[in-house]
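Lab channel / #folding
Pinned by the channel admin:
"Please post every new chain as: sequence first, then the structure tokens as a reply. Keep commentary short and put observations after the output so the thread stays searchable."

First post following the new format, from NK:
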Amino acid sequence: MIHTYEMTVRGHEMDSFGHVNNAVYLNYCEQARWEILREKNLFHYFTDGGLFLVVTETTIRYSGEARVFDELVIKTELMKESPYLVFKHKIFNKNTGSLITKATFKTLLLSQDRVPQDIPEDFL
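Reply from TO:
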């Protein structure tokens, strides 16, 4: 499954060089994950089941720059790599199509008691 989320770069996300601060890309990816949960109605799956999806590892590579008012497209692929649910994000400039950043987030499903749970087969 590949999910697409679009957004516009905001002024407060700039660093002193006039492009998006490197740490902000982590927020962009997190927002894309929240949108997946919202659009696929999975948020209630977690809250109703007392489960938490926790990021355990992040790898990010910067390939280009984004500047204020740039329109971005975040494409996210979900993969199951037991016991992890892996989110692979690619962030593109919508107008030029150029790759700006790619990031991989490994997440683990935990119970309220912080016990790791299997990712359900039908989850993806």
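NK: The two ends are 7 Å apart (CA to CA).
TO: also worth noting, The chain has two helices and six strands.
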